Amino acid sequence: MFTLRPARPDDYDAIVELWSAAGSHVDLAARESRHAFTRQLAQFRDLFLVAVEGDRIIGVVLGSHDGRKGWINRLAVHPHHRREGVAAALVTACDTAIRAEEISIVCALVETGNAASAALFRRLGYADDTPVAYFRKKSTQ
Fold it and tell me: Is the separation of the CB atoms in 63 and 94 below 8 Å?
């Protein structure tokens, strides 16, 4: 059985290992660097959650918000622990924590083709019927 707890700075290496095992692309030079993780963790301490079995991290979700809209980011579950309710528990706990900050809209971006994640979010009551185009501008540094 697993439990959920807030992530800690010393969880970083285990989380990166989990993302890799789960097949997630990780940008260790920028967005998922140790520095970025630690800085964001300090800002969103109650929204960065891990699922643990014993002392091993088997799932992770990183929540954030901009004061008006919340985001569920970087959800991953170790392949050996899928279909055990880990992802649903992490998303539900993160959603609850974001809403406790008086944020009424919670969103998640799911990569096209990730049917399992899309099904999970639909099952948890998220709608995917809003057509949007996602634009981004990366730093040139």
Answer: yes
Query: 67: which residues sit within 8 A by CB, 6+ positions away?
Result: 103
Place of tokens 């992530």: 7
* DSSP letter (8 states) at residue 33: S
| Dihedral sign for Cα atoms in the order 43, 105, 58, 76 | negative
What pLDDT, in 10s, does the model give residues 3-46? 999 999 999 999 999 999 998 888 888 888 999 999 999 999 99
Q: Per the structure block, which two tokens stand in for 94?
A: 């993160």
Distance CA 54, CA 35 (A): 27
DSSP letter (8 states) at residue 68: S
Q: Which of 7-21, 63-77, 90-104, 117-131 is predicted with the least confidence, judged by mean pLDDT?
A: 117-131
Using an 8 Å Cβ cutoff, are 53 and 36 in contact? no
Q: Which domains does the chain have, with CATH numbers?
A: 3-123 (3.40.630.30)
